[in-house]
Amino acid sequence: MAFRILFLSLVTLLAVWPVIRFELPAVIGPVWASGASERWSVKILLPLLFVGALVCAAWGLPVESGILPAFSSSDLPSLFVIVLSTAVAVSVASLISPSTAVPFAFLGSVAGFRLVTEGELDWIQTARTAASWAVAPLLCGLLAAGLVALTVRRPGNRPVQLIVSDQRLLLGCTLAAFLLAGAAAWNLGSIVAFFPVSALGAGPVSAAVAAVPALLLFLLVRPEFSAKAWHVADQDLDFTSGPVFAILAAMGLTYLVFSLPVLSRIGLTATPLPAPVLLLAALVGVSLARRKALVEGEKVLKCALSAVVCPILGLLVCYCLSMILNVSPEDAGRTGWNARITPTLIVLGIIVIAAVLSLYFRAQRRRDLQTEILLSREQQIYNAQKTLSALEVKAEMNERDLLNKLEIKRKELVDFAVGVSEQKEYMESVYERLSQVRSLTDPAEKDAATDELLSSLRERMYFSREMNDFYAQSEILHKDFNMRLKESFPNLTESERKLAILLRQGFSSKYIATLMNITPKSAEISRYRLRIKLGLKRSDNLVQFIKSI
């Protein structure tokens, strides 16, 4: 009994490993990319729905098998041969493309086992299954393209409509996630339905024994599984919610359609389908609808080649292993050792080919990795040089700016010194003229001299030359602002541009009136006219707007 439990655990591990590694990431990845997995209802109900649908399909509910109607063997060695052949076929096919087809390899292995035990296959059913394998990706791609065309073209451009549309898309992604999980589990569960419960021993007890190693394997490879699922979500499906919803719904509907026996009426058959192949087909459909390549053509070709290799390789490996294990010594003595030698050589040849392919692809990946590292280092060097050049340019610009500022400050000091000197000379001249006026005795001459002196002082109070120098220096300091102001608002007058410069420097209306030699009321009127020309509303802040230019 202990040996049977260990053997059953080994069979379970061989059967579950390809599904967890290749199938589940392609189902869970789109759900994570849609954002529906952030909801607690999805986190709780989605795994329950997946497991429930898988259990229902595995416990013998009427599901058409695809290539063969049923599997009658109940011995674990036969089951071991099939799952081992499937694992070998998937491992070799994954060297061609990571988007491999586990259900195809499994059905090919079952066909190889039947070919040994029964001597023939139902070729009509096989042809119908092969046609279904070809039609399913086409249907998935067409559904994805049609759904993208319906979801991407949103009516209206108002923000409220877009928010409502995004909420509807999230709800649609949630429903599509439930559809995909249930339909995928039901479809893939038909693989387990090939085998009656008696093949696993004593009903529920052996089913529980098989479930424990499957759960332990999932926990063991969960980091790798999560990494693959996130790679699908972040790399393959890095776009908006509309296309992701289309991919989820297209995959779920395709799984659902190819789980129904009614397909036999149109010459097809219900059959297990690989999730990576459907995901790639949906991506091709989205690419056609958006007229933008979201997946490389080489990746599609490799996936198609891997999907073709999986069933053929599974059939050959299982056929050869079954021949080696099932031929009795009496048969060997009567027919010679050819019955054993030929399949043995085939298996060894497949192993050698797999080893050669593995070494080749590993060497290729190593070369690609080295090339990628080299390109990355060259890119880093280029970025470093670019950054260094940018820093040098920035340093040179800062140096020029600093020199300009120093020159401006030097000029300001010189102007200040000249201004002090001129003011002193002017005050001395005023003092001398006042002394002369004071010494006059004729009242008429004294009044005329006083009026002349007052007129000179009034003219001096306007500070015309100083204000011109002030505006000239302001234009130098705010050169970029003046250029942007002229480009954005070419209809401003010279006085309005001077007013904008004073406002940008933080002067109040009182000081602006003094500097522009106008009354405070006129300064307020000038500000109001400037607001109108700038197109500001009553609630907009004039100073903040000018500083933002």
Structural write-up:
The protein is an all-alpha fold and 549 residues long. It is 80% helix and 0% strand. It contains 20 helices and no strands. The longest helix has 102 residues. The protein is elongated. The relative contact order is 0.10. About 7% of the residues have low confidence.
Distance between the termini: 84 Å
Write the element-wise H/E pattern from the N-terminal end onward. HHHHHHHHHHHHHHHHHHHH
Summed up, the helix count is: 20
Mean pLDDT: 77
For the report, how would you describe the main beta sheet?
Answer: none
Helical percentage: over 70%
By helix and strand content, what is the structural category? mainly alpha
Give the overall shape: elongated
Question: What's the arrangement of secondary structure elements?
Answer:
Elements: H1 2-34, H2 40-58, H3 76-96, H4 102-117, H5 123-152, H6 159-192, H7 204-220, H8 222-236, H9 241-257, H10 275-290, H11 297-326, H12 329-335, H13 338-439, H14 443-461, H15 464-477, H16 479-488, H17 494-504, H18 509-515, H19 520-534, H20 542-548
Helix pairs in contact: 1-3, 1-6, 1-7, 1-8, 1-9, 2-6, 3-4, 3-11, 3-13, 4-11, 5-9, 5-10, 6-9, 9-10, 10-11, 11-13, 13-14, 15-16, 18-19
Write a brief caption for the model.
By secondary structure, the protein is mainly α.
Observed structural traits:
0% strand, single chain, 549 residues, mainly alpha, 20 helices
